[in-house]
Amino acid sequence: DAGITQSPRHKVTETGTPVTLRCHQTENHRYMYWYRQDPGHGLRLIHYSYGVKDTDKGEVSDGYSVSRSKTEDFLLTLESATSSQTSVYFCAISERGNQETQYFGPGTRLLVL
Amino acid sequence: QKEVEQNSGPLSVPEGAIASLNCTYSDRGSQSFFWYRQYSGKSPELIMFIYSNGDKEDGRFTAQLNKASQYVSLLIRDSQPSDSATYLCAVRYSSASKIIFGSGTRLSIRP
Fold first, then answer.
1. Quick one: average pLDDT of A95-110?
2. Which residues neighbour B90 within 8 Å (Cβ) at sequence distance 6 or greater?
3. Between the CA of residue A15 and those of A9, A81, A82, A89, B34, what are the distances in Å?
């Protein structure tokens, strides 16, 4: 998985609780991304980062926030989890934005009850 | 709304035959095109990328790009049961530093 880890790998939580997912890379890549994957929707971009403290929204950013205080870590926070946020979350990295390809982490399965 | 369209399948192909997967996109300004393979329960892995019109070959895989018709395809020759997976097409649009994924085509290779 190109030196990318995600934690936790599985999580069950209750509606209304905050949840933080972590993506850690050892490749020193500048760009990092958070996607969610749902049946019939493919991968949808939530947020991405183009450097430390530099982030931007993707197509499905409502209800999510991100932070990147170090090159190697990109955190995704569900501020108040809802059942519609039950999904598989993938982190990805790339070297030069989308001039280079993206490499994906193993994913986190989140179930919001 | 920039879109990437794929037939969801399943596409069933006999072992040893050629599997042909297609993808269309909406923005003529698109610059980069990617094919990812995703096994059930796993993360997407890159198979090929293509930037220029024409064909690009890598082993049993050939990516074909036709910008005038706004489609990109992936051919898998000598299909093997291990090729059974979902194939995701992705497109980088010229105006964005991010890529858009199609919803994927599920491919099944039958022995």
1. 82
2. A43, B4, B33, B34, B35, B36, B99, B100, B101, B102
3. 19, 5, 5, 17, 36
Q: d(Cα B5, Cα A61) in Å, to the nearest integer?
A: 22
Q: What is the pLDDT of residues B55-89, one digit of tens each?
A: 999 999 999 999 999 999 999 999 999 999 999 99
Judging contacts by C-beta atoms under 8 Å, the chain B residues touching residue A61 are: none
User: Nearest-5° angle of CA B107, CA A2, CA B103?
Assistant: 30
Q: Phi and psi dihedrals of B8, rounded to 5?
A: -70, -20
Which two three-digit tokens encode residue A23? Answer: 């993506």
Total CB pairs under 8 A between chain A and B: 49
Of A41, A50, A102, the CB nearest to B99: A102
Residue B82 CA neighbour count, 13 Å, CB half? 2
**Is there a contact between B53 and B25 (Cβ–Cβ < 8 Å)?**
no
Nearest CA in chain A to B95: A98
**B95 touches B82 (CB < 8 A):** no
